[in-house]
Amino acid sequence: MLIVMWNGRRTVITGWRAWLIAGSAALLGAVVSVAAILLLFGAVLTLGLVLMIAVPLAIILGLIGKLALPKEGDARRLR
Length: 79
Known about the structure:
Shape: rod-shaped
Radius of gyration: 31 Å
Number of domains: 1
Helix content: over 70%
Largest sheet: 2 strands, antiparallel
Strand order of the largest sheet: 1-2
Number of strands: 2
Number of helices: 2
């Protein structure tokens, strides 16, 4: 049994109509929940993959840059 208050009037819904409304609401809630879970899972997966690639790449590029730059004493000798 569903009781709906609309514009100050109370309407009681029973029988197959109540089951249809409750079932539709449950189905809609399940679809919205699954969509939200998949959206969050995709965001976490994307962030994880970016971090797995970006952090090691930054470390490697930093090491290459450090090795490629001339040392402080070498710059004076080049002048």
